Amino acid sequence: MRHHAAVPRFGLGPELIDGRRIVGGDLVRGARVVTIQPIFKSLALVAVGMTLASGPAQAETLAIVGTTVFDATGAAPRTADVLIEDGRISAVGSGLAIPDGAVTIDGRGKALTPGFFDVHTHWTPNGAPYQTPAIATAYVQAGVTTVNDFHQPPESYEPRRRWLSQLASPHVNLTARMSTPGGHGADWADTNTTKWVNTPEGARHEVRRLLPYEPDLIKAFADGWRYGLSADNTSMDLGTLSALVDEAHKNDLKVVTHTVTVARGKIAARAGVDIIVHSLQDGPVDAEVIDLMKASGTAYAPTLAVYEPVKPGQSPPDDLNNPRYVQSKAKFQYALQNVKALHDAGVLVALGTDAGMPGTPHGVATLHEMELLVQAGLTPVEALMAATANSARAMGVLDDRGAIEAGKRADLVLIDGAPWTTISDVRKIERVFIDGKQVVGPGVALPEANSQMTMAPLRAQALIDDFEGEPGRTATGALRVQDTDGGMDRSVLISLVAPEPGGDSALRLAARMSVKEDPHAGVILPLSRGSVQPVDARAFKGLAFALRGDGGPYLVMVRTVGGWWQTEVEAKSEWTIFTVPFSDLAAAPGWRRAQTPWTGGDLLEVQFGGGRAEDETLWLEVDDVRFY
Predict the structure, then answer these.
(1) Is the separation of the CB atoms in 277 and 219 below 8 Å?
(2) Separation of alpha carbons 461 and 459, rounded Å
(3) What whole-number distance in Å separates Cα of residue 14 and Cα of residue 46?
(4) Burial of 403 (C-beta count, 10 Å sphere; 0-12/13-18/19+)
């Protein structure tokens, strides 16, 4: 090792009346309604406030009585009581006997639906909102109780699951990503983030490599069409996609695909994918793709919200003849026509939005997607089915949730309206329940963690990486990540830990720059697993490390929760020990620029790398990275 000198869940108890707990101003016992005076009403609303502290709340019995139930089984909406015990629906019917001590909610004049699904979301730092707790809050406030998140690398699953367990959050399915070299989804990410495959053998191998991370499903970026707006990416062939699906199914994993053309829709269906999670929009669907999707049981989640040419709150362009706008309108019309055609032909329609993408905000986009399905020609009932039981069926969880039936998970939405006749009534949400616990509604306070930007930080340890430990991982146990410019034509980077004279090891980087403006390449050293939980480095003054290379310049970057900070150094062929005080770091330019001031208490990553002119090479070795 190369040494260097140190350089300077519940709130108040419930109000009781005659042994019954009260919620929402009325106490309902059988057919008798007792009106509570306003002073007691306010006490009752405070009484059911949920704070969800460190451990899970104790199970309790809950009754929603006199409500109009849309159960998503195909039955007409009907007036009924719903009894919930231990987080699940125990009974649905009229005049149910309500156990003593049950929390009773008056649902008269309200609609009760299953919690909504969104099978296509991206919890990305570029979305709206962009922080995990705020995203979770947006979904629960919209009545969305189950989502698939397509953004996270497998290395982040364990800490993200811990974080989500501290929040009022929908059930989040963390989705492993697979693409082709040069494919969509691989054009900005390294292979630790998106697996690159282009043979059946490679696809099976990478599915098996994902299993230790326990993904909830797999997304294959199978279609490289770039909507006619830029050069197409590569696409996944039938043999590779079929092997991927087969290996995933052997391991009880669903497969969804980014598929946006009719021809590629046929390949996805032949491969047996479970859900196409985009619109086929380069032309009208034909009988062949319909028959293939029906034969394979492939469902369809058209993500109309992300394709709408003028999204809610936006204005049309000044030039309505702008070629890009004209093309967007034409593709959207195909998207609307195709979801109607597929639905009418008997293909299962689920609900997804691509939320997290521009103009497609989390939570409200899910509700708007139902409105767009109605715009496409589905009835409000059919749109509600897509958002509930159909999505649950497509995801293989209908036995657990997605309908209001005894034995199912009590993920429910109480609505002040009748969305089966007026779909926009889905926006009139009064209460939301997840696992039988009210998370939105009168008297409910979200957990404090929902208002925090990050997980509570870890205490930083001095050594970040000496490249002597477990292969591929830092001294803190985090998986190293390669970072290069994005696009099909990317800078080519090779990084590896290699022995040095005397038995030491160091990280070596070699890169050939791509032909584009400002190419770059580097290696990221996460400070915690998956760069999810920040570290508090306020006990230290800065970074120390040893470098040698082609002369430089090189960028040394530190990512915080608020963005990136950087400085520039030069290093020649002899090892040089550097010390960089935190005060020497400046906010990075462009999209990486830090949006909040430096505190030292929310660090996520350290990166070494740089850029050169197009087609030039860069080499660099780094060792003994630590805080001092």
Answers:
(1) yes
(2) 6
(3) 8
(4) buried
76: CATH:
2.30.40.10
Q: Give mean pLDDT, residues 359-386.
A: 98
> For residue 58, what pLDDT band results from cuts at 50, 70 and 90?
very low
**Residue 170 falls inside a structural domain:** yes
Q: Is residue 486 a contact partner of residue 188, using CB atoms and an 8 Å limit?
A: yes
| Closest alpha carbon to 156 in 482, 458, 533, 476 | 533
Return the axis-axis angle of helices 287-296 and 323-344, rounded to nearest 10°: 50
Q: Is residue 209 part of a domain?
A: no
- The tens digit of pLDDT for each residue in 418-462 reads 999 999 999 999 999 999 999 999 989 999 999 998 999 999 999
Instruction: Kindly report the pTM of this predicted structure.
Output: 0.89
Cβ-based neighbour number of residue 333 at 10 Å: 14
Q: Residues 76-100: pLDDT tens digits?
A: 999 999 999 999 999 999 999 999 9
Residues 264 and 183 in one domain: yes
Q: Annotate 277-302 with b (16+ C-beta within 10 A) or e (fewer).
A: bbbbbbeebeeebbebbeebebbbbb
Q: Is the peptide bond before 56 cis (omega within 30 degrees of 0)?
A: no
CA angle, residues 263, 332, 380, in degrees to nearest 5: 105
Domain that holds residue 541: 458-627
- Strands 586-587 and 563-569 come out as antiparallel
Helix (H) or strand (E) holding 38: helix 38-47
Both 90 and 169 in one domain: the answer is no
Q: Are strands 275-276 and 254-258 parallel, antiparallel or unpaired?
A: parallel
Alpha carbon 301 to its chain centroid, in Å, reads 16
Q: Are residues 239 and 261 in the same domain?
A: yes
When pLDDT is averaged across residues 544-550 and rounded to a whole number, the result is 97
CA distances from 149 to 118, 188, 211, 215, 495 (A): 9, 18, 17, 11, 29
